[in-house]
Write a structure and sequence with these properties.
With 297 residues, the protein is of the alpha+beta class. The protein is built from two helices and twelve strands, in the order ααββββββββββββ. Strands 1-2-5-4-3-12 form a six-stranded antiparallel β-barrel. Strand 10 and strand 11 form a beta hairpin. Helix 1 packs across helix 2.
């Protein structure tokens, strides 16, 4: 069998070489023919390409459907995995919030128990009156605003005026339909405040600058930039705990406060109706505004 296989191999090898060369030459001849045919008759080539495309389009569509289905399946699996991870994260967050809720309720009940033991009185109800800023003095020596709420709306001299971020000032003048607000930065403004962390009390004094001064602090008070400043409620004219700003600088025994309120973007404010028991009309006791009426400038 070996000599016969060698004989067949010797006869097939030249035949294989001839077929390969013939196929190569045939492809070259076909390419040249198509090139000349395209040059001679463009319409025939266009027709042939169009028919070929029509024939192959259903085949390509059939082939692409499983591929699209596979991509959609992969996308769904990815979304499902993402939803599982998000669901797990939300479960952990919900559990954490429930723990904090339990802690908050415990602290609330504990605080209520301490209030009862101390017989502490709760603050009066604070009701806001929303008003729009309709005027700004804008002068170099005056820091006031004009709002479109007045005596008929329940506004009185001395009431606090707040913005979404913090205290704006106090009502200094009241008309039937309008009122003027003395800003924290005004030279005549005096607001009793307290450092939220250390509970040291002081007076926020305006000097017509963007950063009012914090004065009359205890000599032993430790003040650092970033400390929050809130209203103390002393004097009974302002509710306690209203945010004002943070300590911006402490230099040469002078403490400056950066207010939370953006004075250049005030459009709406709220006037707080804060009436202490036994004070039927806060205008009868304007507090420190008695000496700083705008009419007396």
């Amino acid at each position: 069998m070996a000599p016969r296989q060698a004989t067949v191999f010797k006869m097939a090898w030249p035949l294989k070489t001839i077929l390969q060369r013939s196929a190569f030459l045939a492809l070259i001849a076909l390419s040249i023919a198509l090139l000349f045919l395209g040059k001679a008759n463009v319409g025939v080539i266009e027709t042939l390409r169009t028919r070929t495309t029509d024939i192959l389009t259903p085949v390509l569509v059939t082939i692409s459907e499983p591929v699209d289905a596979f991509h959609k399946a992969v996308s769904r699996v990815q979304r499902l995995t993402s939803l599982i991870e998000e669901n797990e994260r939300l479960r952990e967050e919900n559990a954490r919030l429930l723990r904090w809720q339990a802690v908050g309720r415990t602290l609330e009940q504990e605080n209520e128990n301490y209030r009862q033991l101390l017989n502490a009185l709760s603050d009066p109800l604070v009701l806001p009156i929303t008003a729009r800023v309709v005027g700004d003095s804008g002068g170099p020596f005056v820091r006031t605003l004009l709002v479109n709420a007045g005596r008929r709306d329940g506004v009185h001299v001395g009431q606090a005026v707040v913005a979404p971020l913090g205290l704006v000032g106090r009502i200094a003048e009241v008309g039937d339909r309008s009122a003027r607000v003395l800003l924290l930065t005004d030279l005549n403004s005096r607001i009793p405040v307290v450092l939220e962390q250390s509970r040291h009390k002081g007076i926020l004094v305006g000097d017509n600058s963007a950063f009012p001064r914090l004065e009359f602090l205890p000599a032993t008070a430790a003040v650092a930039p970033g400390d929050r400043v809130v209203t103390s409620g002393d004097g009974g004219m302002l509710p306690a705990g209203r945010p004002i700003g943070i300590i911006s600088s402490v230099t040469d025994q002078r403490v400056r406060v950066q207010t939370f309120t953006d004075w250049s973007r005030l459009e709406y404010v709220s006037v707080l109706r804060y009436d202490l028991p036994g004070m039927s009309n806060p205008q009868d006791n304007p507090g420190d505004l008695g000496e700083s009426r705008l009419g007396g400038r």
